[in-house]
Design goal:
The chain is α/β, with parallel strands linked by helices.
Length: 304
């Protein structure tokens, strides 16, 4: 687990691989992570051409520090096999992760894992390509622990609540929004289980889309719910959702300053042989230090 790259995923921006204009705008955006889509955002007639556009964009545009990801079609489709080969052969050296859609079991993920291993050897790639997996079918949620642990290439589990709602028969008006008269957060269990499975193996957990991109308040509510359960980011299906995601999933300047002060106080006490110290009327021990370190590690990763 310690060998997995640490990547910022506060805002995962979705961009259709069929649009050169949108690929360019994605590169210029403030998103931590961009996934170039070959699945739902691309019409069947445009998927083959979209592979070429994505390959060109990965090789020729300046992505800066962004995580460069491609979302491929699921393994039951006629496109998946060639998605993998085409993208990796074109731009494997400039690709950080591949996002797999609609796995049902670990076997579905291992298909992609094996293909990537073969291509990396064939192309003599210096870096391994990581995996991000969408948990968006009820069968996948039932098998989430097995899926999360099936390969050390795995980096991230993502809750795809749109397809999940359809899979379970949940009636929602908007993807990722409220579900009628249900008394509470209808996605709580799924989010919690995905986050727990991810955290148990040192993976990131990310929340999926919020369909109404004009409703920033609603987006922030859902992002805050995801963060409260240990998720590290949320999808942005429109550029207007990037800034709210970055805000919700980043520690504030006040929180960072407090965390640094608490850690400094604890280390000073530790040097004196103390197991706990008091700061502003609060006892700081090794448990509190773990939570403080979470804040400081985020600040370091995000350059705050």
């Amino acid at each position: 687990m310690s060998n997995r790259p640490r990547r910022a995923r506060r805002s995962q921006l979705s961009v259709p691989g069929s649009s050169e204009k949108m690929l360019q705008k994605a590169v210029e955006s403030a998103a931590d992570h961009v996934f170039c889509d070959l699945e739902d955002a691309v019409a069947p007639s445009a998927k083959i051409e979209a592979r070429q556009k994505i390959g060109w964009a990965l090789n020729n545009l300046d992505w800066g520090r962004k995580v460069r990801c491609v979302r491929i079609n699921d393994i039951t489709t006629e496109w998946c096999h060639d998605d993998i080969i085409s993208i990796v052969e074109q731009a494997g050296a400039n690709l950080d992760t591949i996002m797999l859609t609609k796995p049902y079991t670990a076997a579905d993920v291992l298909f992609l894992d094996r293909m990537l291993g073969q291509l990396e050897k064939k192309l003599k790639l210096e870096r391994r390509i990581g995996l991000e997996v969408l948990i968006e079918e009820v069968q996948a949620l039932q098998n989430v622990e097995e899926i999360a642990g099936c390969t050390d290439r795995m980096e991230c589990l993502i809750f795809g609540m749109g397809d999940y709602s359809a899979s379970q028969g949940i009636d929602t008006r908007d993807i990722g929004g409220s579900a009628g008269t249900y008394p509470g957060d209808i996605f709580h269990y799924a989010r919690f289980r995905i986050a727990m499975a991810a955290r148990a193996l040192g993976l990131d957990a990310v929340d999926g889309p919020f369909g109404n991109f004009k409703d920033e308040a609603g987006y922030r509510i859902e992002a805050a719910r995801a963060r409260s359960l240990g998720m590290v980011g949320k999808w942005a299906i429109h550029p207007s959702q990037i800034a709210p995601a970055l805000d919700v999933f980043s520690p504030s300047a006040k929180d960072i300053a407090r965390a640094r002060r608490l850690e400094a106080a604890y280390r000073e006490g530790e040097a004196k042989g103390l197991g706990a110290v008091q700061v502003d009327g609060v006892m700081i021990d090794v448990v509190i230090l773990r939570m403080v370190r979470n804040t400081l590690e985020k600040a370091e990763l995000f350059g705050l």
